[in-house]
Amino acid sequence: MPRSKKLLFLIVMLGTSLSAQTLFLKKVEGRVYSPKSDVSAVHVLNTTLGKASITDGNGFFSITAKLNDTLVFSAIQFKRKMMVVTAAVLESKMLYVPLQDALTELDEVVVMPYNLSGDMAKDLGKMEIEPVITASTLGLPNAYLKLPTKAERDLYAATANPFMSFDPLINAITGRTKMLKKRIARDKKYGRTERVRAFYPDSIYQTELKVPVDRISDFMYFCEVDSAFQTIVDSHDQFRLWEFMRKKSINYRKNNKLE
Description:
By secondary structure, this protein is an alpha+beta fold. Helix content is about 45%, strand content about 15%.
């Protein structure tokens, strides 16, 4: 075979190989969660592909991956977690990743120079505590103004000044505007679900609904995707809400083999 044909053959084979690899890449979407710690700004690394992402304020993330890639979840407040991308991970619509708090234990703590005893009730009486100064105590304007979320700020930036820039038109064509609107709606729904969860202590979910502590967030999402959930929450009827969650817990335990 002439040298030029060999070179052409190698180029074609290389292109075919790269196309095949790209074909099997998929965007994995998920959420990290922890019952105690903040889950924002957790680093998500695909060490196989050299890709990286970071979680938003609610722990959601997305990252490109393929079968058998290794994902690493890392943050200063959590233990480092590694996960191999399986077929089930690639097929899942939402990957849930529980993280464990990284606890730092000290052998001994010496409190100086206030001669504190360690009894909070006694020590508070000895210490002079200055008043807390906030925007509201100072009477500043807009002290109670609710700040927009990151998704809301991104949407404003993507749609602002349509007569001064082509960016809003480009964002609309590429689907970025639609994606940001969905993210805002998702964040609002997630915020509502977290408020509902806070109605009851974790022990109630364990003893009454028989849902393990590390599965409560997953159970709440199971309730959230039911179209009736939002209507019941908006009714502010906690008895009706509890009965709904009780029935959902039966299906949840059955689906996840927790009986």
